[in-house]
Amino acid sequence: MEGEDVKPTVTLVSSDNMEYSISKEVAMVSPTLRVMLEGPFKEKSGRVELPGIEGNVLAKVVDYLQYNLQYKFANKDQEDIPEFEIPTEMALELLLAADYLNV
Amino acid sequence: MSFYRSRNRGRGVNDVKGPSSALTQFLRDEGISAQEIRTRWEKQQAEKQESDFPNSVEHGVETSPHTEIRDLSDDNSSETDTDENTHKLRMIGSLGADSDEEEYDEEVVPKRRPEPVKTRNNQSDKKKTQKLLQNRRKRQKRAAELLDRRVELPTLQELCIEKIGSNISKWNDETDEQGKQVYTHIRTVLGGISTDNLNNLAKALCKNRALNDHTLQLFLKTDLSHLVFHDCSNVSFEGYKALAVFSPHLTEISLQMCGQLNNEALLYMAEKLPNLKSVKLDGPFLINEATWDQFFQSMSGRLTEFHISNTHRFTDSSLSSLLRHCGEQLVSLHFCRLDSISNYALIPQYLQNPQFHTLGIEYPYNEEDVSDMLVMQLLEQVGSHLRSLSLNGCLELTDNAVVNGLAIFLEGNDQLECLQLEELVNITSDSLLYFFKTIPLPRLSRCSLKRCTKLTDDAIVELLLNPAKDALEDLNLNSLINITRGTFEIMNCHNLKHLDASFVRCVDDHVVKTVGSQNPSLQLMEVFGDNLISSKAPIREGLTLIGRQSDSI
């Protein structure tokens, strides 16, 4: 995570008040977060509350956002792109969160 | 590697070629299975290891096909034969005949031939093998992704659905009847999910062949208004009835491979789904003539889209019933591989809806039934507002249908998005050139001219000069053997994403480079059978080539 960087950061807050600080660039991978952060909403301040998503699920979502940003433009032939692992028990909730965040 | 194997099989023995060689046939007749031979071979290898006999397989002892066949035919009768030499000869013979051996020579493959690796304790060799294996796995994974046409990074939703789908199918196989109540729970959890993802889940389940009456429960009691099942082969008629009762909001339903859909279930759906207006069925061969008639009667006034394929029980009288009861409202009609229909000529007079937008008549049983005249009449009726036209496999169609049909009645139509004219072997460039020259198609995003083997450069060049070039996303030029490099050099479509240029012999490295640089959105290019493309072809970043000869797995 690049929380301490000079780059602008965004804080995602889960339903159980866990906070995840990520760079704005990472958050922008999600179209939903992008609209929230760019639109005339209070989230513009950089603090996004996601009461529908639990802490452990949100952690996984953050992992994916970073994974996506890192490998989106990677050349599959030259670079080995690792699988993104999803724990079975989390799959349903993660799907709901992914659905909401449109990633 | 298994993808390529069938092509090589049978080579070398009597020069027999084709999917089923004489040897294969012989083995099948004699009841000799490859598994049996392999088991014996593995046993033999173990014995050999003990007796310290190094790599006998690679000595390349020549045996005639006759020896081999005799040896193999002896297999059944000599189960107790323990003579090592006979075994050895047999194995050498069979391996020499099967091309598997040459494939293995390219790389070390411990999976099928583990012994030589085990005997070497050399550390560096082990590492090398591991690396090879890793590379191979990587390539296999990549190939699997390509087969799924997955060129972009998967979304988190796709990953989750894949996971859920595979778990449901796994769990479905393992648990017994009582345990299956859990679906209700899963569905409760899925309650908050978008209907799009529910359809994606249906897709994932179908892909795993896991859609059955139990998993179907996931889609009940939902607000789903449209539902697509790509593989319903395991859904019983009870399942369809449950679907009709518990998903009353359905307006559009697409059931592919719905072989178990019976008369009762179809009528039940018509009765219980008051909003149903779009029905797409593939393979409903249990539905008989009388039921079709009844179905159309009850759908009269609301059926607007009807697609049907792969059933011999949909007859001329069913067609007539469809048109009489629902013809006026229809906006989309698609027939494919209906072996009992000959009277297509009935269709034009009934298609009265000015909103009619999708027409497909594909692979008629008798090609003569879909004539130039019929196409002209159809287009006269609906041509001006068509969005999709598909005439694949109507082999009798000639230039006349294009010049006096498409070129006249599509005039002024700026809505056409999809044009499919596959396998129209009688159509020449002259007519298509005229068509693409006279009719601007500013929205044509999908065009397939696959296997229209008489087409030459002129037709395709004209298409690429048509306003369609800015809208084209998917272009299929498969097997157009007469087109040359010049055509690809002027291909400049900034929205083109998928190009099928398989079996177009002129496609070489230079063409790949040009096409890649001139079509910035191109992601996927199919080049099967284009043997002029070398491994050194310059491929633009973001573009994937499928089917190149030099890419082995």
Search tags:
heterodimer; A: 103 residues; alpha+beta; Potassium Channel Kv1.1, Chain A; three-stranded mixed sheet; 4 helices; 3 strands; 39% helix; globular; B: 13-stranded parallel sheet; 22 helices
Describe it.
The complex is a heterodimer of chains A (103) and B (553). Chain A is an alpha+beta fold and 103 residues long. Chain A has one domain: Potassium Channel Kv1.1, Chain A (2-Layer Sandwich). Chain A contains 4 helices and 3 strands. In chain A, strands 2-1-3 form a 3-stranded mixed beta sheet. In chain A, a hairpin with a 5-residue loop joins strand 1 and strand 2. In chain A, helix 3 crosses helix 4. With 553 residues, chain B is an alpha/beta fold. Chain B has a domain of 105 residues. Chain B contains 22 helices and 13 strands. Classes of the chains: A alpha+beta (103), B alpha/beta (553). At the A-B interface, helix 3 and helix 4 of A face helix 9 of B.
Tell me which CATH architecture of chain A applies here.
2-Layer Sandwich
Strand content of chain A: 5-15%
- Sequence of secondary-structure elements of chain A: EEHHEHH
Query: Uncertain segments of chain B of ≥5 residues (pLDDT<50)?
Result: 1-16, 53-114
Mean pLDDT figure of chain A: 85
**Level-1 CATH class name of chain A:** Alpha Beta
Can you describe this structure in just a few lines?
Chain A is an alpha+beta fold. Chain A has four helices and three strands. The model of chain A is unreliable at 1-5 (pLDDT under 50).
Draw up the topology in text:
The complex is a heterodimer of chains A (103) and B (553).
Chain A: E1 9-13, E2 19-23, H1 24-27, H2 31-38, E3 47-49, H3 55-71, H4 91-101
Parallel strand pairs in A: 1-3
Antiparallel strand pairs in A: 1-2
Helix pairs in contact in A: 3-4
Chain B: H1 2-8, H2 22-30, H3 34-50, H4 65-74, H5 84-97, H6 100-106, H7 115-119, H8 123-147, H9 156-174, H10 182-189, H11 195-207, E1 226-229, H12 237-246, E2 252-255, H13 263-272, E3 278-282, H14 289-299, E4 305-309, H15 316-326, E5 332-336, H16 347-350, E6 358-362, H17 372-382, E7 388-390, H18 399-409, E8 418-420, H19 429-438, E9 446-448, H20 457-465, E10 474-476, H21 485-489, E11 498-500, H22 509-518, E12 524-526, E13 544-546
Parallel strand pairs in B: 1-2, 2-3, 3-4, 4-5, 5-6, 6-7, 7-8, 8-9, 9-10, 10-11, 11-12, 12-13
Helix pairs in contact in B: 4-5, 9-11, 12-13, 13-14, 14-15, 17-18, 18-19, 19-20
